[in-house]
Write a structure and sequence with these properties.
Elements: H1 3-20, H2 37-72
Length: 73
């Protein structure tokens, strides 16, 4: 596994680990605009997961281009 592919895997795995580890966010405080931590933490990960998936996609494209250029030589 190349370092770039390891970063891609980390980008894709981070949201799953963060959401599946419920003990880390099963609390009411700190509240944000009256919304308990339990809820806004999960909604924050919806946005973060989208960003991380986009980053992983762009890195994957870069990796595939590099492999094509390497194979063409």
């Amino acid at each position: 596994m190349t370092p770039l592919r390891a970063v891609i895997a980390l980008c894709l795995a981070a949201p799953y680990v963060a959401i599946l580890w419920v003990g880390s966010y099963s609390a009411e405080n700190p509240a944000l605009i009256g919304v308990p931590f339990f809820y806004w933490y999960q909604m924050l990960w919806v946005v973060l997961a989208s960003v991380l998936t986009g980053v992983a996609y762009k890195l994957w494209q870069r990796d595939q281009r590099a492999r094509k250029e390497g194979a063409a030589k």
